[in-house]
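At your convenience, could you comment on the folded chain following this short note?
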Amino acid sequence: MGYKADVSPEAATFDQKALKSNWSHRHFAKAAGMGTFGINNMLITKIGCCGRYSTIVTNLDIEPDVPLKEEYCLYKKNGSCGVCVKNCPAGALTLNGYDRQKCYAVARKNAEIYTQFGSSYTNESGEQPNSVGSEVCGKCVVNTPCAFNRII
């Protein structure tokens, strides 16, 4: 159709010191009006927060969406939840904040165990994996109202 599209190599990088990626699919999804961030830093959409995102950069002319005004996190909305804080095995989540170091320590332990899935990210040059396994957890969203759909 004459348009160009590509995936940024930055999407697969992760700075292990700052514990941040150079490219956040979740933040692009929030900017596109797909959801809001919970106190667990997961993007909560109208159908839940247990999902993965990808981004494609294109020069296709489309009407942009806008970030949502409605809050989907029940704790942020009215203080009625906070289950994710109780579920966090690392103690990284509190009602007042998030400790990246504590969360990442659990994710690194998981990467040592779950090597069959490959590395979660590549290094800054995009060539070699920066870990032997999958650096994920997600236990904070197990059996929570926001995991499956919005209950508002």
About this structure: The chain has one domain: 5-148. The first strand starts at residue 5 and ends at 6. The helical segments are 25-31, 74-78, 83-87, 100-113, 145-148.
